Amino acid sequence: MQSNEAQDLAQIKKTLKELLVSDLSLEDIKPEEIRDDEVLFGEGLGLDSLDAVEIVVILQRKFGLEVKDLENRKDVFYSIDSLAKYIYENRKKNS
Amino acid sequence: MNIRKRGNKLGFWFFRTSLKWTGLSGAYGLLYFVCLYYLIFDRTAVSASMAYIQRRFRGINSFQKYHAVYQLFISQGKSLIDRYYVVSGLGRFDIELRGYDRIKSLLSDSKKGLILLTAHVGNWQVTMTTLEKLGRTVYLLMSPEENAAVKDSLNIDSGNEKVKIISPDNFLGGVIEIMKAIDEGSIVSIMGDRSYGHSASEAVLLGDRAYFPHSAFSIAASAQCPVVVLLSAKVSTKKYFVDVSHIMEPRFSSRAKKKEELEGFVQEYAGVLEDYSAEYPYQWFLFHDIWRKENKAVN
């Protein structure tokens, strides 16, 4: 049986992938086709800086996180794994 | 043409000395000789100006084109002298601020800040100091090569806490810092008439399709904040105006229409600049071919 943390993380990743595909209008890719460790920007999924704006908005509006905490956090935007981990830790902290 | 980069120490000494001894008129007088030199010998500066000049003044002959380039060089020279005049404390300019009440009310009605969309027109570095009375921190999205000149003109290194710089070379073009600044109620100034390799949208400008960066509109739509177009122009030897009355509220009606709507916002902005160039043709310092397709970056 999965721990609560693993279940929460899995759910966050699933939601994130769905939001990325819908809110960023990603064409020719389905949420389940995005790998957890796939690099989001540049190589990999090929997102750009304007997609980053949308991701910040997703983090603010869908997950209740604050943009001020994201400054100098390049590591957070690396992959679905890193984003999900950040959301899990900070949502918990804020709640 | 950029006198700061192109001039030498002796040249600067002449300008400084004439400014001190003969005032603005004397320093402007020197420009007519200096700019003639650049017109004849600086092919790079001349060709950089031609993309704009030949579209702004369609149907003119070669001699008239070179004359227009000469006028543009002189106008930019005056702008640089004016900047030095203010920075060195030799004097000040009268600045008429148009649209201040609207921008003030926008900021007081919302906790969020706004995006100030500037262009290479007039003397925005000098005139931006008038916005200090808004009491908000102004962040300039600025490439490193422009930082030195701007830092001088806005006294950024002299402890001016109200004006700060965000480099587009930061992670993801500085968008996280921009979003944070807007969220905190600050003003973020973005140059709208050159993409510096960032993503761009097409718009018709002076009869041809040109490429403008669209990040200001895209960020504003996501951050739900307004875009205020900042224009300035020199209207007499000692007077400038600053116009912040053109306000846009870029929003996307649907994801599917995002690209089309972005082009609409960019076209509106291009129209504002075209109107400006109709009135002040020699104060848009467009030394860059924004009509060249290569400028449409894929980023």
What does this structure look like?
The complex is a heterodimer of chains A (95) and B (299). Chain A has one domain: Orthogonal Bundle (Non-ribosomal Peptide Synthetase Peptidyl Carrier Protein, Chain A). Chain A has three helices and no strands. Chain A is globular. The model of chain A has no long low-confidence stretch (mean pLDDT 88). Chain B has 299 residues and is an alpha/beta fold. Chain B folds into two domains: 85 residues, no CATH class; 198 residues, no CATH class. Chain B has ten helices and nine strands. In chain B, strands 1-9-8-2-5-3-4 form a seven-stranded mixed sheet. In chain B, strands 6-7 form a two-stranded antiparallel ribbon. In chain B, β6 and β7 form a beta hairpin. In chain B, α2 packs antiparallel against α4 and α3 packs across α4. Classes of the chains: A mainly alpha (95), B alpha/beta (299). The interface between A and B is medium-sized, with 20 and 21 residues.
Secondary structure layout plus pairing:
The complex is a heterodimer of chains A (95) and B (299).
Chain A: H1 4-23, H2 49-61, H3 80-94
Helix pairs in contact in A: 1-3
Chain B: H1 3-6, H2 9-41, H3 43-56, H4 62-87, E1 94-98, H5 100-109, E2 114-118, H6 124-127, E3 138-141, H7 144-154, E4 163-166, H8 175-183, E5 187-191, E6 200-205, E7 208-213, H9 215-223, E8 227-236, E9 239-248, H10 258-279
Parallel strand pairs in B: 1-9, 2-5, 2-8, 3-4, 3-5
Antiparallel strand pairs in B: 6-7, 8-9
Main sheet makeup of chain B: 7 strands, mixed
Outline of chain A, from the CA principal axes?
Answer: globular
CATH architecture of chain A: Orthogonal Bundle
The count of strands of chain A amounts to 0
